Amino acid sequence: MPTTVSFSLNGEQVSAEVEPRTLLVEMLRDKLRRTGTHVGCDTSQCGACVVHVGGRSVKSCTMLAVQAEGADVTTIEGVAADGKLHPMQEAFREYHGLQCGFCTPGMIMSALDLVRRNPEPDEGEIRRWLEGNLCRCTGYQNIVKAVKAGAASMRAEGAA
Amino acid sequence: MYEFDYHRPRTLGEARDLIAGNEEAKLLAGGMTLLPTMKLRLARPSDLVDLGDIDELQGIAIDGNALEIGAAVRHADVAGSADVQRLIPALAFLAGQIGDPQVRNRGTLGGSIANSDPAADYPAAVLGLGASIRTDRREIPADDYFLGMFETALEPDEIVRSVRFPVPKRAGYAKFPNPASRYAIVGVMVAETGGGVRVAVTGAGPCAFRVTAFEDALKADFSAAALDGLDFDAPDLNSDLHASAEYRVHLVGVMAKRAVQAASG
Amino acid sequence: MTSNGIGAPVRRKEDRRFITGSGRYTDDIDRPGQLYAHIIRSPLPHARIKSIDANDARSLGGVVAVFTGRDMADDGVGGLPCGWGITGKHGAPMIEPGHPPLATDTVRYVGDQVAVVLAESRAIARDAAELIEVDFEELPAVTSIETATAGDAPLVWPEAPGNICFDWEIGDAAAVQKAFAEAAHVTTIDIVNSRLIPNAIEPRAAIGEYDAGHDEYTLYTTSQNPHVIRLLMGAFVLNIPEHKLRVVAPDVGGGFGSKIFHYAEEAIVTWASKRVNRPVKWTADRSESFMSDAHGRDHVTHAELALSKDGDFLGLSVRTRANLGAYLSTFGPSVPTYLYATLLAGTYKTPAIHAEVKGIFTNTVPVDAYRGAGRPEASYLLERLVDRAARETGIDPIQLRRRNFIPADGFPYQTPVALEYDSGDYGTCLDKALELADYGGFVKRRKDAEARGKLRGIGLSTYIEACGIAPSNVAGQLGARAGLYEAGTIRVNPTGSVTVLTGSHSHGQGHETTFAQLVTEALGVDIDSIEVVHGDTGKIPFGMGTYGSRSLAVGGMALMAALEKIKTKSKKIAAHLLEASDADIEFENGRLSVAGTDRSVAFGEVAMAAYVPHNYPLDILEPGLEETAFYDPKNFTFPAGCHVCEIEIDPDTGVVDVVSFVAADDFGRIINPMIVEGQVHGGVAQGIGQALYEQCVFDADSGQLLTGTLMDYCLPKADHLPDFSVTTNVTLCAHNVLGVKGCGEAGTIGATPAVINAVVDALSEFGVNDIALPATPERVWRAIHSAAA
Question: N or C terminus of chain B: which is more exposed, having fewer CB within 10 Å?
Answer without folding.
Answer: C
